[in-house]
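User: Hey, my collaborator sent me this sequence without any context and asked if I could get a structure. I don't really work with proteins. Can you help?
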Amino acid sequence: MTVKPIDREKIEEMLLIEQSCFEDEAWTKAMLCEGLECPGAVYLGAFEGDRLVGYLALLVSLDFADIATVGVVPEFQRRGIGKALVETAVFYAARAKVGKIFLEVNEENLPAVSLYAKCGFKQEGVRKNYYDTRRFSSRDALIMAKTL
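Assistant: No problem. I've predicted the 3D structure and written it out in C-alpha cell form, which is a compact way to encode the shape of the chain:
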C-alpha cells in the first residue's frame, strides 16, 4: 500500500469511496472538487496497486490544518490504511509548519475515535448537533487535535 497526493482525475473514485463509507451523508462531487480548489488543500490517496482504496482531504492554513474527510473502502478497513493516511497528513501539516492539526468525528464513531487517538490526537471539545446523521444516534462531533 502506498500513500501519495491525488488530484481531480481521482474525483470519481473518491466519490465512490465517500458514498460507500457515508451513504446519504457523503460529500458530493461538487464538494470534493471545491475542496481541491481551496488554497492549501492536499488530497492524499491510499493505493493497493493501481486501485484507490482510501483518501483523506487535508486543508492547510497559516497556523493550523484540518482533516476534512477520510474514507477507506469498507473491505479495506482495519488494515492500517486510515492510519497511514492520517500519519501522512500529519507529516504534510508539520512540513507546512502549522502549530496544530484538527478534525471532527462523530462521538459514536468509536473505530475512528480510536484511530485518531492512536495517532496522537486528543479531544479538545464537542460541537453539538454538528452532524445531520442517520448512521449514529448522536449528532455531536468531538473536536480532536494534535499539536505539532
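In plain terms: Strands lie at 2-6, 41-48, 51-60, 64-72, 100-106, 122-127, 141-147. You can pass these C-alpha cells on to your collaborator as they are.
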